[in-house]
Amino acid sequence: MPDPVATADRRRDGRALGCPVASLAHESAERPALQGFREFDALRERGPLHYVNAGRGNYVVVGYEEALAVAQDWRRFPQSRYLFGVNGEPGDVVLIPESLDGPPHTAWRRLLAPYWSPAAVGPWEPAIRRHAVDIISAFKAKGGCDLVTEFALRFPPTVFLEIMGLPVADLDRMLVWKEHLLHPDTTDPAAAKANLDASLEAIIGYFLAAMAARRATAPEDRPPGLVTEALTWELDGEPVSDADLLSFYMLMFLAGLDTVTAELGYGFLHLATHPEDRRRIAADPAVVPKAVEELLRAYPIVNVMRDAAEDTEINGCPVYQGDTLTVSLPAAGRDGSMYPNATEVDFDRERTTHLTFGAGPHRCLGSHLARLELRVAYEEWHRLIPEYELDAAFSPVEASGLMFTLNTLRLRWPA
Q1: Over the stretch 188-235, which tens digit does the pLDDT of each residue have?
Q2: pLDDT beyond 90 at 401
Q3: DSSP label at 321?
Q4: CA distance 124 to 371
Q5: What's the distance, CA 234 to chain centroid?
Q6: In principle, which of 94, 197, 315, 405 could form an S-S bond with 99, CB 3.0–4.6 Å?
Q7: Sequential DSSP letters for 295-317
Q8: In CATH, which superfamily holds the domain spanning 7-412?
Q9: Which family does the record claim for this protein (predicted)?
């Protein structure tokens, strides 16, 4: 165990702890695509854990083994905070079940598991495939598109809205709210905080209105979907409170509108710049499941925040109770100690396990749906548009922040 160190001293100078020190900008202008991955790759080469000079006890975990250990140990490193905030500060919004640990988390996982099992997700495939084909067909004849805005930001969110039982017509304003929460577009902390607060208020108001409208409707006439079904849920024989339902809806909102969208952006960026991999998928759809896993491994997009519940140490660096750790799945998935040539994509890689969906009790419940959406997207796109490349007139860029995502990816193909 580390010797006690005054809080003010250790937060004033991380070097006093004898740990590598990183300077990370959480809110900044958009940057060239893949820069975030390169920055975390560089950190990982210097060590698996870094103190972040951000004005408080804050660490970033970039090694695979260390990330796995923290993710699996919810007692020492509870997941009581979430990804969004200003200047890297954790947000204070509870997201169920992600913000819970121990028995409450287990109870919620048991309640939700039947909705996200392979057996439950499988029947959605025809509808998911129809959505993909409809969206791609709308711009195929143009000979080009912005993959992010015209496909990645439309396809998974449309599936999400159908599963939740919400109108697709609401998508555009939802995307604005989501961007303010996860991908601030301003370097002004005050403006970023104002946008975040306004969007949180809007999302809460939206779901409160949806709940009220359903309760005012006879049960047999209520629209199908999770928003409606959740109104009748019980835990330990008691109805789930409206506050807990709002926390659950918020998590679904963030996961449904951002995660698969971001993965598709980086997956298509790789395929557009590696024609041999693109041609292989187009010629042999049977390779798509392996391609999905390898692209997930190479391009994780979530950095998970954990708290230290006690004084401990990681790789010789002291970590104190109350400190915050950012577990970087983008860095862990590209750790050369676990994967040979880890920053390269290899559809024939023997080791296919990865941490992109997390590990331990908080492993992503929606992983089966995400894999299905990714598989369908790659299959249908390459069936309809097998030949494409980057549009040389535009450079792909990504957002800053703790969630990695592309802002633009212009593609072109023979019309």
Answers
A1: 778 888 888 899 999 999 999 999 999 999 999 999 999 999 999 999
A2: no
A3: T
A4: 12
A5: 28
A6: 94
A7: HHHH---BEEEEE-SS-EEETTE
A8: Cytochrome P450 (1.10.630.10)
A9: Belongs to the cytochrome P450 family.
